[in-house]
Amino acid sequence: MVSLSVVIRIFVERKRDKGSDLARAVGRQRRAYDLRAVLTFGMGLLFAVLITASFFLQWYAYRQAQSHAERRAHYAHLSQIGQSYLISVLDQALGFRGYLATGDPRFLEAYYRGQALENRSRITFARALRPEDHVLFGRVIEELEKRASEWRHRVAEPNRIRRERGPLPDIARVMVLGKVKLDRIRGSQAELASKLREYAYKERRASRREMAQTSAIATLLALLVAILGILLIRFLALHVARPLAELAGRAERAEPFRLPSGEEKIQEVRALSAALYRLDEAIREREAWIRSAHSEAVELARFGEFVQQLRDEAELYPALVQNLSTKTGASSLRIAVRNANRSRLDVVYPDLSREAQVEHAVLQDPSRCRAIRMLQVVSEGAASPTCCQCSFGAPDEGSYVCAPMLAAGDVIGLVNLQAPRDEAFDAEAIEVAQGYVRFASTTLASLRLLATTRERALRDVLTSAYNRAFLSEFLTKQINQAERRQVPLALLLLDLDHFKKLNDTYGHIAGDRALVAFANCLHQQVRSGDAVVRYGGEEFVVVLVDSGHEAALEVAERIRSAVEKLNVMLVGEGPRTLLRTSIGVSVFPHHGRDEASLLAAADRALYHAKATGRNRVCCATDADALHLGVSNASSEA
After folding, report:
1. ∠ CA 312-318-322 to the nearest 5 degrees?
2. Which terminus has fewer CB within 10 Å in the chain: N or C?
3. How far is C-alpha 14 from the chain's CA centre?
4. Beta strand pairing status for 617-619 and 581-588?
5. What is the DSSP letter of 617?
6. DSSP code string of 231-300
7. Which pLDDT value is given to residue 215?
8. Per-residue pLDDT reduced to its tens digit, 355-381
9. How distant is the alpha carbon of residue 461 from its chain centre?
């Protein structure tokens, strides 16, 4: 194990975590090994040992087996040569004996063939013998050749020559002597064959012994490889499997992952531990952020539910200011909304006089505001080179946020947040502010839409004056306010003189044009806080807020005079027509303390004005006598 560690340290490249927060947290990191390098080197070493040893053992076994096989084949060849030598001698003996017995020369053919075969066998012996064979078999071979030569020179050749002269009287003795010599030759050949078999057997036993040794070496090699494999497995189990199991256990038990200690031997394990630690920290931070965001969303939803229940714009702005100040930390907050004709921005929070609002150019021309022009939030610091040059929204120092109030893609206002610190509004604060501004924008648009719808429902379609339903609600409200404030309230009841005649003469379209011209004249002569109401047909009511007798009579006379000057073209290119009106005046509380009594008093005054010649103003207090501004021209226009 020690040697393997040394080798791994030599061949495996070391890697360190540089510049990471985790490395600084755990201090000096110990040496770590790359898992791929460990596996590659370990498995490569095992395979190299196995392949090299297998190749060597196979080569060695093959060489030994081939060597022993060659020796055995050599001994078999020598045995074959010896057998051939014996056969050649026997062939000679057979031909020799046949010739001795019969004297027939044909038997000598076998004798001479045997001699030729013997010579070849002797030559083959000489060529086949190796140096070591002379030590092992030289004596036996020499003895075999000596006895064969002795048989040939002492028995065969002398007696063959004698037989050529005639039959041999001692042929039996010669036969016995030849047999004795041949038996000695057989014995020498048998001894040679025995020695050859013995050495062949020895070679076989040596081959088996070497095979057994090779098998033992292979077993030892397999044991060595197994030990190396066990050491590698133990290393991986200790430094890979166990840390991974610990990480899996912590994940299964939902426990926080620990900071890597630097004791990890494998780089991948160390990196995985660090990554899981960072991931765990990120998840916990994310969970905390989600809880915070959920809390913010709940509060924002509550704000949305609250503003949806509002019925007046004035209730919306304090709630928006309070929430934005609390959530964003803004030290100053301003809200400006577009006016009815969308020509400018009016500051609704905080209270700012009309003279002060005129000083800010962006309020008079909303297109000068970058947030309104781009339809997106603008957040800058006062020292930033891209800071807006706006006296309304940009502070002299600190930072600011301008958030346009959008409804259906249309700008209906602007919210400005300011703080004395640079970069006081981060992305989260801006996002929170946008959420509250969106709810406020939607609510403001809804309130204005409801107000517009209600306004249209309370106005006469033809003349754009308020209708009778509005009069009842408005007059009752104004009477109550006048009573609380102890101020007067005047009511004018007006009627176009001879309107029925005008209708019958020129038609209803001409009558409608006359009513429109009359209503426009009334709107021009009264204040914006006063109300012009079409009471029915050609009758109109004007409610004058905070007006007494003299003011009411003055306004009534101004209206009568203005109507008298109207020159209306009722039909095509025909002649223009002059309009005239009679007016009855009643004042709260002198002529009545409720809607019905005031209308009744004004109606009596109007009746008196018509009865006394029309085109005049009469007040309810002296409806039978007093009249002001009597027209010298009593024409029945």
Report:
1. 145
2. N
3. 33
4. parallel
5. E
6. HHHHHHIIIIIHHHHHHHHHHHTTPPPPPP-S--SBHHHHHHHHHHHHHHHHHHHHHHHHHHHHHHHHHH
7. 81
8. 778 788 888 888 888 888 888 898 888
9. 58
